[in-house]
Amino acid sequence: MGSFDHNNMKREVLEGLSALQKQLPCKYFYDAHGSYLFEQICLQPEYYQTCTELSILKEAGPIVMADLKPDTLIEFGPGNIRKVSVLLDALSRLRRGIRYIPVDVCESALGPATGDLLALYPEMEIFPIISDFTNDLEMPPIKGRKLIVFLGSTIGNLTERETLFFLKRIARSMESEDRFLLGADMLKPKDVLEAAYNDQRGITAEFNRNILNNLNSQLGAHFDLSFFDHCAFYNENCRQIEMHLLANRDMEVMIDELGIIVTMARGETIFTEQCKKYSREDIERLAATAGLRIARWFSDPRQWFSLVELVLPSHQGR
Predict the structure, then answer these.
(1) Burial class for 226, CB neighbours closer than 10 Å (0-12, 13-18, 19+)
(2) Which of 151, 155, 159, 243 is most exposed, with the fewest beta carbons within 10 Å of its own?
(3) Same-domain check for residues 256 and 155
(4) Helical (H) or strand (E) element with 275
(5) Angstrom distance (rounded) from CA 170 to CA 166
(6) CA 173, CA 284: separation in Å to the nearest integer?
(7) What is the pLDDT along the chain (318 residues), one digit of tens a residue?
(8) Is 1 contained in some domain?
(9) Strand segments (E) across 123-224
């Protein structure tokens, strides 16, 4: 079971399922089972993001770590330890010991990765923080140089307002020598994008429906998952993948803790996730608006994915 903020979950689910276009925040995918399913998605041949980002990170990570030699590594939305291990391996060749602060909304998503990392890097100090960083980003005072990382394409799950809020808070938490390494999924052909979110094994479909499992377990909802089909498509006007749960019949669903009955007609959807795709100009605009500057840009030969090193405008480099 996840460990989401219960009152926030009740409020957000009530608002989302009362809207004309029903919707649920995508963070509620991620209980322990949802986190496991996402790791399985990352292994699917259609899902190009993870392997592409890893290939870029193996080039970029040692460069960034050698330049900065951070005292603290802060990771938002940590997932599989393969990515952060690239950075930690690079640093371990330069110095011993580092403070690692993983930040995630779900406690059950932090535990296993923390244990695995301690086994690999016993001299590392780990201070997990449970926080919804899209709404509340309060970091403790940290001495020394920081590398802040937001890997994967999670930035694309945020609205533009949420993105700017997050980036501005990051900028305010940074000192002149700190760096911020951001992962961004770039624009590419529609067929490639849609295949990535409709894997042949149906793992993304199970992941999508898992959000209803969380409502059932956390809020006493009575959703029958078989009443919903997975639907993911590229919205060209908004330049984003949209994931929906499509009702395959009429239904009425009681949610005990909210004291409501959700009525859905066949063909109606619950919007569960957006995954924005970016151009370089998009990232430059967002960074500048948030008070950040692009120091270096790392990408793959096809320009399908990018890791962007961001600094404060006053940063002069080394």
Answers:
(1) exposed
(2) 159
(3) no
(4) strand 269-276
(5) 6
(6) 20
(7) 446 789 999 999 999 999 999 999 999 998 889 989 999 999 999 999 999 999 999 999 999 999 999 999 999 988 778 899 999 999 887 777 789 999 887 776 676 677 788 888 888 898 888 887 777 666 767 889 999 999 999 999 999 999 999 999 999 999 999 999 999 999 999 999 999 999 999 999 999 999 999 999 999 999 999 999 999 999 999 999 999 999 999 999 999 999 999 999 999 999 999 999 999 999 999 999 999 999 999 999 999 999 999 999 976 554
(8) no
(9) 125-126, 129-130, 146-150, 179-185
Q: Count of domains in the chain?
A: 2
pTM for this entry: 0.92
Residue 249 included in any domain = yes
Whether residue 283 sits in one domain with residue 227: no
Tokens of 65: 């770590």
Looking at the structure, do residues 272 and 243 belong to the same domain, yes or no?
yes
Check whether residue 175 and residue 201 sit in a common domain: no
Please give the distance of CA 297 from its chain centroid, rounded to a whole number.
20
Residue 219 sits at φ, ψ, to 5 deg, of -120, 5
Q: Which two tokens stand for residue 123?
A: 């001299």
Q: 293 and 156 in one domain?
A: yes
Closest CA to 24 of 210, 228, 273: 273
Closest CA to 232 of 278, 190, 188, 266: 190
Half-sphere exposure (CA, 13 Å, Cβ side) for 218? 24
How far, CA to CA in Å, does 130 sit from each of 5, 33, 181? 10, 18, 21
- Please say whether the beta carbons of 50 and 77 come within 8 A: no
Domain ranges, residue 215: 6-30+190-276
H or E stretch covering 207: helix 203-219
For the domain that residue 60 is a member of, what is the CATH number?
Answer: 3.40.50.150
